[in-house]
Amino acid sequence: MKKIVETSNAPAPIGPYNQAIRAGNMLFTSGQIAIDPKTGELVTSSIEAEANLVMKNLKAVLDEAGFTFENVVKSSIFLSRMELFNKVNEIYGAYFDPKTAPARETVAVQTLPKHVNVEISVIAIKS
After folding, report:
1. Smallest Cα–Cα separation from 56: which of 86, 94, 17?
2. Domains (ranges, CATH) in the chain?
3. How far is the C-alpha of 34 from the C-alpha of 22, rounded, in Å?
4. Which residue, 57, 77, 84, 126, is the most exposed by fewest CB within 10 angstroms?
5. Could you read off the pLDDT of 88-123 as tens digits, one per residue?
């Protein structure tokens, strides 16, 4: 059975989707972008600020569902351009133990929602 996960500590969806879906012991998050959940404003002052807020938003969704970054088995990173990879990778990497980091792909795409520079989604599982 699927359960909708919703928290006010992460941005509200901007379309017909939910922040995350829990299905049994698995959690599937929607892509998070750098929207401040308190103000609803985009934070794009720097790629570092943007990536940090994306990770904080993901953490809020994981927390609401009772998961942590340790439970993440797969992540998808979308960038507006591959030149941002190193800076985003550094911030992303701070949230994971390198020895147990999830599988991942990172791709550059033409345009992201609200013209942000980074969007990240994750899949997590509990044993």
Report:
1. 94
2. 2-125 (3.30.1330.40)
3. 23
4. 126
5. 999 999 999 999 999 999 999 999 999 999 999 999
